[in-house]
Amino acid sequence: MILSHSAKMKSCYTDNVLRKGDDLMRGPPSPVIPKEIASHVLEGVELCDGILRNLFLCLQINDIEPFCQDEIVLYRQCAEKRDKEIRERMQDSEYKLGSSMPLEEAKGRATQLQSEVTLLERRLILASGLEGMEGFRQRWSLHGQLEDTRKRLVALNRGIGKRENQSSMGEGTKSAPAGKRWFFW
User: CA-based angle 126:18:139, to the nearest 5?
Assistant: First the structure.
């Protein structure tokens, strides 16, 4: 009888942790970096691996999370800063690609990103039917990927639009001698 009561208490505790676990996932998830721009985006970024190692060591030594609050806070701050920097760099990279790639390739990339957005939207709709913690995690992850991909698409289109505006302005002044163009990256 005592054993079944203990098992029942453990089950209630586990269910409570699962229901409340979503409060640990604040803000968007870490961005997924496309392989074609990963080396440029990650260069010089603090990846927080040392802080994460300390957090896992603390959890291993103390066996419970309340004794590791300092490490959790440090990791959360580092991860938020890292993710913000990575998102800015991804958008900057897409903008530069849009303004420097051959126009047809840039438009092809925009089409590819738009199809990724559509796919993620469809997957998010399908994930809305999943219940429980797993459903929440999938929706949370897909929503983050969707927002990041949309922002990359907007940045790419801004780069393409900038170049199209420059070329249309250049066509209007063809009779004037062309000056040097400088690009600062």
Answer: 20
